[in-house]
Design goal:
alpha/beta; Nucleotidyltransferase, domain 5; eight-stranded mixed beta sheet; six-stranded mixed beta sheet; 14 strands; 21% strand; binds adenosine monophosphate
């Protein structure tokens, strides 16, 4: 089996996150984060062979950003390649693939056009993903370019779960429906849970809880996503770092009138000033909120309660959706590291067959483990997510077939 060097790129509005893997060995050769693209001073953090290198540099746009990245990858002292040809595949995280993509694909002109079309569904993400693809096609012209969509895993959600209670023509005319996000993560952890239970990927019904800065929860039936908490946009569902999650849409009209807020302000309020940040008044970072809660900050304590209550409510509704559930999985920054959240989200659910083992829940190692008690009929797991590795795998599969 031939080894391949695969670059995975995640372009945000002002950042490029990247990792180079040696596949199929799953070895990380280098990784980095370029932030503040477009500012006078951008910042690059580059990790190679356990060493961290940091520099401030002026980077105007994503093209320039990727030039910097590829420059360091080829650097005499810090580099891991001599020629860009050694990177045989580049995998791109693309947030929105609409209804058009149910798996990762090699990027062709037709695919590019579709991603361009979906810009209006994800105006904060797809344009930057697209900029990354265009830049990378120029800088790595011999590499296979692959797109991995956040929405792809959720294309199996049936209409009963993806249609909203709006006039039907809004779906037909404006593509308004539930799309769901974090699909790469939900797919990975549900497959992994099946593996841990000694089953194949289609032999599991699972509820996967991705709790990071963004949070979403998915019902996976026989290996396929059948419902998920994020919707038309990533704003719906669970309470998140700064996003409100579910609210009564009536609140928006009330606030618009009462506080004279325009659409931009309302958008900002619900996406950037709400969630754990808005409730706690402390931070959007769960670690800061936990510290404040531990020293008696009532708002911080209450925000954790509300956060967990919403998770529990979704788990309850997905138990109903699935009928029979084999496993519940916690993943991402909070899901993997906050025993209190896992405990509170699953409290008093013994009658549903969910019994947490407190001792196992409170351990910090190994990272991937079962945390339910032996008599819990639904198994509970912590499974660290690795979206970049999944994208590297998808890309490697195309490269190795060439
Ligand atoms: P992610 O988006 O997956 O990187 O997750 C970010 C969230 O995970 C932030 O709210 C962090 O505060 C939280 N997080 C990261 N590490 C820990 C930890 N050790 N304990 C509690 N929360 C954590």
């Amino acid at each position: 089996m031939q080894s391949e060097k695969i670059l995975v790129i995640n372009c945000g509005s002002s950042s490029i996150k990247y990792k180079v893997f040696l596949m199929p060995q799953e070895k990380t050769l280098a990784s980095g984060l370029l932030e503040k693209i477009g500012d006078k001073k951008s910042h690059l953090k580059y990790l190679v062979e356990g060493k961290i290198f940091q520099t401030d540099i002026s980077v105007k746009n994503h093209i320039e950003g990727l030039e910097v990245v590829s420059g360091y990858l080829k650097d005499k002292n810090l580099g891991i390649i001599k020629d860009v040809k050694e990177i045989t595949g580049v995998g791109h995280r693309v947030v929105h693939g609409g209804e058009g993509f149910n798996s990762s694909v090699i990027i062709t002109e037709k695919v590019l056009k579709k991603i361009e079309e979906y810009k209006n569904l994800a105006p904060l993400h797809n344009p930057h993903n697209l900029a990354g693809i265009i830049a990378s096609s120029k800088l790595f012209p011999t590499s296979v370019q692959v797109a991995a969509f956040d929405t792809a895993f959720h294309t199996t959600i049936p209409p009963v779960a993806y249609l909203y209670g709006l006039p039907y023509n809004f779906y037909k005319d404006f593509s308004i429906r539930r799309y769901g996000f974090h699909g790469t993560s939900h797919r990975y952890v549900s497959r992994r849970a099946a593996g841990l239970m000694g089953r194949n990927k289609y032999q599991i019904n699972a509820i996967t809880c991705h709790l990071g800065n963004g949070c979403s929860i998915t019902a996976v039936k026989s290996g396929h996503s059948v419902d998920t908490s994020m919707g038309f946009t990533p704003l719906e569902g669970l309470i998140m770092g700064t996003r409100s999650g579910d609210i009564d849409p009536g609140i928006i009209f009330y606030l618009a009138e009462k506080m004279n807020l325009d659409l931009k302000q309302l958008n900002n309020l619900l996406n950037k000033e709400s969630g754990l940040l808005g409730l706690s008044g402390v931070s959007n970072d769960f670690r800061d909120i936990s510290q404040e809660a531990a020293i008696g900050n009532k708002k911080a304590q209450f925000s954790i309660e509300i956060f967990c209550y919403r998770i529990k409510k979704y788990i309850g509704s997905y138990l109903a959706v699935l009928g029979k559930t084999d496993a519940i999985v916690f993943t991402a920054g909070i899901g993997e590291n906050a025993p209190l959240v896992r405990k509170k989200s699953l409290e008093n659910m013994e009658n549903f067959g969910i019994i947490l083992d407190d001792e196992k829940n409170n351990l910090s190692q190994p990272k991937e483990r079962e945390i339910s008690s032996d008599n819990s009929s639904i198994k509970v797991f912590i499974i660290p997510t690795d979206e970049e590795l999944r994208i590297a795998y998808d890309t490697y599969q195309f490269v190795s077939k060439k």
